[in-house]
Amino acid sequence: MTDQIDTILAGLDRYIAALNAEDSAAMRAEFHFPHYRLSGAGVQVYEKPENYGIEIFHARADTDEWDHTAWDERNVIQAGANKVHFDVQFTRYRKDGSVLGVYKSLWIVTKIDGKWGVQARSSYAE
């Protein structure tokens, strides 16, 4: 299972790198669809890859000041052969390195057709 966790963590790293590069295609490559996001704003369902991209992030996040996001924590809560639950925390930063916000979240990563991808997120971030 350790090798699988390392593979999944690498995918999560690729997602954050893609977010920071504002690369929608690379962001979508780390997700499975339909993709689910639960937040204070309700439940969003992205049925197909073309329904999700950097514009979705910009529409809900404080992007006037946002420069990049970084992982603080990624802890495995439960792990099985085809699904892993992560307790994560990430920080959004301004260009000068000051913090915009720190957010806790639950990410569920699933293995479908041999590929690990984020299937669902439950976040306190907008």
Reported for the largest beta sheet, the result is: 6 strands, mixed
The level 1 CATH classification is: Alpha Beta
**What portion of residues belong to β-strands?**
over 45%
Gross morphology is globular
Compute the gyration radius: what is it? 14 Å
Number of strands: 6
Distance between the termini: 32 Å
- Fraction of helical residues: 25-40%
| SSE string | HHEEHEEEE
Query: What is the second-level CATH architecture?
Result: Roll
In total, the number of domains comes to: 1
State the low-pLDDT regions, or none: none
Indicate the CATH topology: Nuclear Transport Factor 2, Chain: A
Count of DSSP-assigned helices: 3
* Sheet with the most strands: spatial strand order: 2-1-6-5-4-3
Class per helix and strand makeup: alpha+beta
Mean pLDDT: 94
Descriptive notes:
With 126 residues, the protein is of the alpha+beta class. It has one domain: Nuclear Transport Factor 2, Chain: A (Roll), CATH 3.10.450. Helices cover 25% and strands 50% of the residues. It has 3 helices and 6 strands, in the order ααββαββββ. The chain has helices at residues 2-21, 24-28, 54-60; strands at 31-39, 42-46, 66-79, 83-94, 99-112, 115-123. Strands 2-1-6-5-4-3 form a 6-stranded mixed beta sheet. Strand 4 and strand 5 (99-112) form a beta hairpin. The protein is globular and about 40 Å long. The N and C termini lie far apart (32 Å).
Brief digest:
The chain has helices spanning 2-21, 24-28, 54-60; strands at 31-39, 42-46, 66-79, 83-94, 99-112, 115-123. It is α+β, with helices and mostly antiparallel strands and 126 residues long.
